Amino acid sequence: SSCDPALRPIIRRRARSLPTSPERRKRAAVQCQVPGCQSRMHRVRFADALGLELTEVKVFQTGEDPSIPLHVLSRLSINSDLWCSSSDLEFTMQCFVPDFQQPADCMDFSSRLQEQQVCLERVTSSDLGLSGTIQVRNVAFEKQVSVRYTFNQWESLHEVCAHWHSSIPEKNGQGQVDVFTFFLPVPPFLLQLCSVVQFAARYQVNGREYWDNNRGKNYSLTCRTHPLKMPRECEESWIHFI
């Protein structure tokens, strides 16, 4: 009733055609010694899906060293280096680091937001690009927030739209603030030391336009080496990741 192909007869025919050693043929020819029993002794052999042998006996002479594969030797060498290192494994990676203090951590953040109507809150870097949040004063319901950025000192520029995330009350309690999120994709070839990304936030509402360009200096991030520490418990998972 099953539609699966019958594989067992094929495997049997392939297995029987394999040559056997004289010793195995001798063992296979030994009959059971129990009176009235005409069956042969039970045998156990290991074979793959095609019936090929999975075991092989190798006899080493005195002074003969076994041959160890190169990939096994390299793995043993890596594990030895990691084991002899410090308690925490430390690596370095390249990423964009802000050349400015995160605006949300500055004492004048609220006053800058009141003055400019828009202010960058904070920005973070990853291997895919830059992510950040922007706060704008809720002047009107219809509004548009975007980020204009460049990789080559404004010889060419790009612009992405930010998306509404949430609404929170202002710290002074006089109004409401909308929080927008944005993402700037960074091509992998730009992750080189000393590469610079510059950007500014734009806020359009009620037919007017407001900017936050870090008081005329623009927000900039420079690609630098960043140390990354990993606990020793993660040693094996890091090797598999590599």
Automatic annotation (TrEMBL):
InterPro entries, alphabetized: CBM21_dom (IPR005036), CBM21_dom_sf (IPR038175), PP1_regulatory_subunit_3 (IPR050782)
Pfam families for this protein: CBM_21 (PF03370)
One record GO biological process: regulation of glycogen biosynthetic process
GO cellular component: protein phosphatase type 1 complex
Molecular function GO terms recorded: glycogen binding; protein phosphatase 1 binding
CBM21 domain: residues covered: 110-222
Protein name in UniProt: Protein phosphatase 1 regulatory subunit 3D
Organism for this UniProt entry: Opisthocomus hoazin (Hoatzin)
